[in-house]
Every structure is written in structure tokens, then in C-alpha cells.
Design brief:
The protein is an alpha+beta fold. The longest helix is centred in the N-terminal third of the chain and has 38 residues. A hairpin with a 5-residue loop joins strand 7 and strand 8. It has an eight-stranded antiparallel sheet. The radius of gyration is 26 Å and the shape is globular. It has 17 helices and eight strands.
Length: 495
């Protein structure tokens, strides 16, 4: 009988450990998505930082855009057949013109002449990590959308579970026991960033689960044709015709748009099925004082006006869908909004990290301490940004063809295996110091190699240096204190 009970206790303990590990996995995904989302708020500026010393300009004239399309299409004629050709127009955040085909991207100068290949694989790797965790894109976006729903639920339940959380919004007991200070910072930062995080979580869930929604709409109203369901928001496309033809006249299209809608600013020129009789042109242009990512204007191959899709003045549902992206990624309001989104995103990372640490502390208070879970969480908190930096340096050394997702996930997995097989309480101290050293080393090396050629990227180097100093200050090593009943009750009441 004793043996049976011992086996039952062992089974229960293993079940509890598995339950805790699953909970930790969910928190880990929230943290990774929050961290990468914070990074890519300024993804255009990271792109300049990643590839400095490239021709920059304030605007690209219609004639130069036509020349850029023609030149890049000629360079790309021996590559894979291009289904879409994109011209990204210069913006304040990225004052460069980029022409992208299915064979890759080219930076062009003010005259539309290709000057350099686009090699922004590192920031694209970070974007992919945020949007779909490098899983198959549809499944990954659904998973990320579900995590957005979970984050929104955590926000609501967190507020409901702490009736005094708003009244105590500015109450900090940082000079008391470290655990009480951690609880206060977790709660206060959660309150201060609540509107931002709720907006980001809900819009992220909308974007991630959008494919599921369109699939349901397609089955209900479009006979299962998902492309037809998408046309209700993004407009219809002309029928395809694969017969050969000259490239379209995008110069006339840009000139016509400037005359018809002078307040708009083109951001993208998209040529569908270039070099075919079925080709057509879309121009995405921003509107002042609007949250939409842009209105889409349609033109035929000769540059003749085809009208607007209706993102700016169409049905409210279409306008809402077009506003979701900017609200989620902070692509409105310029540098001030980018700074605010970055700071709020960092606060969300701190809230997530502190919340899980508090949960691990509660397990310890109840006699269910697990050094493996604690060291595993330290790997997620400090190892994730460390491996993102490792991926950058791997790309620098190995070249643009390096598989950065493989490097990142292999590195995180190796650190987790090491933490589980050889758990060390002070792993957070060691990893955080390594991260701080890597940040400052990256900033200095980048400044010496490319920063002088591109003064605009110096700001990113300074951010890395500040991040290094903040990491050191946030992880001052404290001696492990013994728990006593008074502190235990105080922490429990504050949590």
C-alpha cells in the first residue's frame, strides 16, 4: 500500500510539473512575441542600421520609379518568373527606394539605377519570429493570434483579481523586500500600459486569426473561395492573361495620382503579373491624419485611373481593417509614436518576466520549488535577446544566405537543454551579463565598421549601449534571502 501511494504521489508530482511546464511555455511565447514586437516597432530604422551606406533620398520621381522598375526587371530576367513587382517609395523612417521581385530586392538611387542588393535578412527574421514564430505561416499566425487573445484575457483577469490596482497605481514599495517590489512593479506597469497592451493584444489577435475568419466567411458566403472573401476588404483583381506585353506605365500612374489626390503620399507601387497582358498597377498611398495604412488606388497597364478600393472612405468595416495594422505596429505619428510604442513594449516585457517570476516564487513558498523551471525561465528572458544578437552576427559572418531561424531556435533549445540538465540558480546573472556585454560589443563594432558611413544609424548604436547599461542595473546580483512568515504574508497580500 505504501508503495502504491508513493507511486501515486510521484505521478501527481510529474503531472504538476508537466502542468507548470505548459504554463511556462505559454508565458515564454508571450514574452518572445512581446520582445520581438518591441524591436520591430522601428523596423525601418533597423533596416538602415543593418545595411548602412546605401543611397538615400527624400523622394523618388515618377520617371525615376519607371526607370527603377525597368532596370530591376532587366536584371531579374534570368531569375524566377515574377508574379508581383514592388517599389517601396522613400519615407522619413527609411529614406531609400527599394524594388523587390520574386528574385530579391534592389536599392536604387534617385535616378532609378540599381546600386546595391537588399540584405535585410536579420530584421526580416525578427519580423517573422514576431508574426508567426517561424512556423508554417498560416498555422503560425493563428497561434500568435491565439496568444494575443490569451494576453488580452490575462490583462482583464489581472485587473479583476486586484480590486485596488487602479487606486494603488502609483504606490511603489521598492525599498521593502525585493519580492514585494517585484509585485508592485508588475502591477503598476500593468496598469500604466493597460490601454496600449489591450489595443496591441486585440489587434494582434485580429491579424493573427484573420485567416480563420476569412475561411469561415468563404465557406458561409463565397462557396469556400477564400480569395473571393478577401475581395470584400481588399477589392477585386482583373482576370489574369499570361500573354507577353511591355512593362506598365507606372510614371503616368504616379503623375495621375498626384493630380487627383494631391494630399496622398505614395508608399508602395505594386505591379501584378508584370510583363503580361493581364498586368495592372496598384499604388498604396497614406492620407494625412488617418490611421489607415493607406488607400489602394488602381490603374491599368497604360497608367489610366481605375479608382480607389475604399480603405479611406469605404464601408466602416473596411476602414477598421485597414487601421488595424498601424494601430498594432505603431506605424503612425512618426518618431514620437515609435518611441512610445517601444517604451510600452519594454514595459510589457518586464510585466511578463516579473509575472512569471512571481508565479515561480509562489511555487517556492508552497514547497514546490523547481530549479529547472526557474533556470528555464531565465533562459527565455535573457537567452532570447541574446540569441537574436547571435543570429545577427551569424548573418554578418556567414552571409545573407544563412538560415537565421535555425540558428535562433537551435541556440534557444541548446540553452534550455543545458538549463534543464544542469540547473544553476545563478544562470540569470550569467546570461544577463553576457547579454549586456553582447549589446555593447555589437554597438561599438557596428559604429566602427558602418556607423561612421551612416550617421542615422548611430541612434540605434546608442540604444544598444543604453540597453546594455539597463540590463546590468536591472540584474544586480542579490543574495538569496531566507523566507520568513512575515515576508511571506506581505508578498502574498501584495500579489
Amino acid at each position: 500500500m505504501t508503495t502504491i501511494r508513493a507511486k501515486e504521489r510521484t505521478l501527481v508530482q510529474r503531472a504538476l510539473g508537466g502542468h507548470a511546464a505548459i504554463g511556462l511555455l505559454a508565458c515564454a511565447l508571450i514574452y518572445i512575441i512581446s520582445l520581438t514586437g518591441t524591436i520591430i516597432v522601428i523596423h525601418d530604422r533597423w533596416q538602415r542600421w543593418e545595411q548602412p551606406a546605401v543611397a538615400e533620398m527624400a523622394t523618388l520621381t515618377p520617371r525615376a520609379a519607371q526607370a527603377a522598375m525597368t532596370s530591376v526587371a532587366a536584371l531579374d530576367r534570368h531569375g524566377p518568373k515574377t508574379s508581383h513587382l514592388y517599389i517601396r517609395m522613400p519615407t522619413n523612417a527609411l529614406p531609400r527606394a527599394v524594388v523587390t521581385t520574386d528574385g530579391g530586392g534592389w536599392y536604387v538611387d534617385e535616378g532609378g539605377r540599381p546600386v546595391a542588393r537588399e540584405h535585410n535578412q536579420w530584421i526580416e527574421f525578427v519580423i517573422g519570429l514576431h508574426e508567426y514564430l517561424h512556423l508554417p505561416s498560416t498555422f503560425g499566425m493563428i497561434l500568435v493570434g491565439a496568444i494575443g487573445v490569451a494576453l488580452a484575457a490575462l490583462l482583464v483577469t489581472g485587473v479583476l483579481a486586484h480590486p485596488r490596482i487602479v487606486r494603488d497605481a502609483f504606490r511603489l514599495r521598492s525599498r521593502q523586500h525585493p519580492q514585494i517590489a517585484r509585485v508592485d512593479w508588475h502591477n503598476r506597469l500593468g496598469v500604466w500600459t493597460l490601454p496600449f497592451v489591450l489595443a496591441v493584444a486585440l489587434t494582434g489577435a485580429f491579424i493573427g486569426l484573420g485567416n480563420v475568419g476569412f475561411t469561415v466567411l468563404a465557406r458561409a458566403y463565397a462557396g469556400g473561395d477564400i480569395l473571393r472573401a478577401y475581395t470584400s476588404v481588399y477589392g477585386e483583381e482583373p482576370a489574369a492573361d499570361a500573354g507577353p506585353a511591355q512593362l506598365p506605365d507606372i510614371s503616368t500612374a504616379l503623375t495621375t495620382l498626384a493630380a487627383r489626390v494631391p494630399s496622398s503620399t505614395p508608399t508602395y507601387v505594386i505591379v501584378h503579373d508584370p510583363g503580361t497582358r493581364g498586368q495592372h498597377v496598384q499604388i498604396i498611398a497614406t492620407h494625412p491624419r488617418r490611421l489607415i495604412y493607406g488607400e489602394t488606388y488602381r490603374f491599368d497597364a497604360a497608367g489610366a485611373w481605375g479608382g480607389a478600393v475604399g480603405m479611406a472612405d469605404g464601408p466602416l468595416g473596411r476602414q477598421a481593417a485597414a487601421s488595424t495594422y498601424n494601430l498594432h505596429f505603431g506605424n503612425f505619428g512618426g518618431l514620437a509614436i515609435e518611441i512610445a510604442y517601444t517604451l510600452f513594449g519594454l514595459c510589457l516585457c518586464v510585466v511578463t518576466a516579473a509575472g512569471t517570476t512571481l508565479w515561480l516564487d509562489k511555487r517556492r513558498r508552497r514547497g514546490r520549488e523547481s530549479v529547472r523551471l526557474r533556470t528555464g525561465w531565465a533562459v527565455i528572458v535573457w537567452g532570447t535577446p541574446l540569441m537574436i544578437l547571435v543570429a545577427y552576427w551569424f548573418k554578418v559572418v556567414a552571409g545573407p544566405t544563412a538560415s537565421l531561424p535555425t540558428v535562433f531556435w537551435s541556440g534557444v533549445a541548446a540553452l534550455l537543454i543545458l538549463a534543464i540538465t544542469r540547473p544553476v540558480v545563478s544562470v540569470d546573472h550569467h546570461l544577463s551579463r553576457l547579454l549586456a556585454f553582447s549589446l555593447i560589443l555589437t554597438a561599438i563594432a557596428h559604429f566602427l565598421v558602418g556607423g561612421l558611413a551612416d550617421p542615422a544609424s548611430i541612434g540605434i548604436d546608442l540604444i544598444l549601449i543604453v540597453g546594455s547599461a539597463a540590463t546590468v542595473l536591472a540584474t544586480k546580483r542579490r543574495k538569496v534571502e531566507r523566507w520568513n512568515p512575515d515576508i511571506d504574508r506581505a508578498v502574498a497580500s501584495a500579489d
